[in-house]
Amino acid sequence: xxxxxxxxxxxxxxxxxxxxxxxxxxxxxxxxxxxxxxxxxxxxxxxxxxxxxxxxxxxxxxxxxxxxxxxxxxxxxxxxxxxxxxxxxxxxxxxxxxxxxxxxxxxxxxxxxxxxxxxxxxxxxxxxxxxxxxxxxxxxxxxxxxxxxxxxxxxxxxxxxxxxxxxxxxxxxxxxxxxxxxxxxxxxxxxxxxxxxxxxxxxxxxxxxxxxxxxxxxxxxxxxxxxxxxxxxxxxxxxxxxxxxxxxxxxxxxxxxxxxxxxxxxxxxxxxxxxxxxxxxxxxxxxxxxxxxxxxxxxxxxxxxxxxxxxxxxxxxxxxxxxxxxxxxxxxxxxxxxxxxxxxxxxxxxxxxxxxxxxxxxxxxxxxxxxxxxxxxxxxxxxxxxxxxxxxxxxxxxxxxxxxxxxxxxxxxxxxxxxxxxxxxxxxxxxxxxxxxxxxxxxxxxxxxxxxxxxxxxxxxxxxxxxxxxxxxxxxxxxxxxxxxxxxxxxxxxxxxxxxxxxxxxxxxxxxxxxxxxxxxxxxxxxxxxxxxxxxxxxxxxxxxxxxxxxxxxxxxxxxxxxxxxxxxxxxxxxxxxx
Length: 579
Fold this sequence. Notes:
The chain is an alpha+beta fold and 579 residues long. It is built from 16 helices and 28 strands. The strands form 7 sheets. A 7-stranded mixed sheet has the order 4-7-2-1-11-14-13. Strands 16-17-18-20-19 form a 5-stranded mixed sheet, with helices on one face. Strands 5-6-3-10 form a 4-stranded antiparallel sheet, with no helix packed on it.
């Protein structure tokens, strides 16, 4: 299979694809464009970005073809040995899973725009890029000048590329592997390379050590740093694309720490999901949904380990890690969908509404609720073994039993792996944390306390949130603050709906969110005017003594028992970072 990819201009955003298919020996050929991409478990229907699809024989004569599904084409090839398929793809998606073209950069995810020849997916691809001579190419595929080589179709669609004239590039290595790690940066961000290479080497080394090696010649961190706000990363077998912005934020240490966090998360995916993969996706079926219930393993464990291994490698200080964990626990406790739907059920429903806000209080998050489940499991294993066993042992077992052998794991396999490390039946954990939807706050507090850490709560600083149970936002185009979220069972829950605009309190206009809280503070009995669907309404509310929305903080106890000291040290102490 031979691809020629070119463009005539950049402002139109259209890329031109010529696919030459030789050695045809059948009367009909079918071509399939993926409908989704690994790492985002929802149908994205990339075919909507294709126009001017056409097919020609070797003499440039048009051939008959027809669409037999939204993203599959059937071509009549009776007596024809070679064809050329031509089409245009609209490259105007800036996130880590899209395609983009402008006057300084070409960014391609082949899974959005590459065609599989049904029955010939294991054949090699040769991709020639018609791009400026000055462009460098960042890509995990082998290169010969401006030509890329892929072993098969999945190798192609699993290998995104960035091509630009001003790519920054550095490399580093880790002990225990011959892999060379690459860092590529496109955009207006000039890092402190000594610091960045030091930090990346440290967290990479801890991950390599955890799994006993990394079997690859090269691994590529590919960054697109944009001038506007965006945060997105996508994992691949030998690379990751991470898109972040705004670029000017990287003058602050917090933005750099966020870059480290997402980078550690994506590298962990080298093992967890790219190789330790659910049986339902072994192999991927890219033309349809791949339903699975173990998103809490694929993404929950990865989200937990992304920051935790930054602490283990001493890239994050103890306070940095606890602050990050506080934020994750806050997001968990603020999501009341967790009390209606288990993380396993929400994993199955990723294909339905996993990447959108959805209706109020319906779903949990495989990322955050999965992280909390992973945290509880890790603390449980450590506590019951007095620091001798941990979730690390579960991950290593999954790697040895499934990832290394390229065997997909099932829900039952994961549970069995956990039980073998725990050395007991774990029905209680799975019923409560994976398949249940009861409040995990009491359990979280108990588990953390065994490690000498208190999970304290304080009233939310907003009066609306703390005393009445609703949060607001003031959009740039709005006149009044809009209701953003409502706590079930609160006074606000009996009155307001999402999107209501709070206009006046006790006869005084609400100017902004600050004035809203000041007016709510002024009286216990409240006469509220608000707009719903452009119609003015009014209601009377009275504050009670209950605190609704709360903020949570992790507090390190100073007077510890021997057991608490041992457990905290084995969990939160950084490993030797002399390398």
